[in-house]
Amino acid sequence: MLLDSHPGHESLMVLPDFPRYRDLTTRTRSGRHAANLHVVLLDPNGTFTSEHWKP
Question: pLDDT tens digits, residue range 28-41?
Answer without folding.
Answer: 999 999 888 999 99
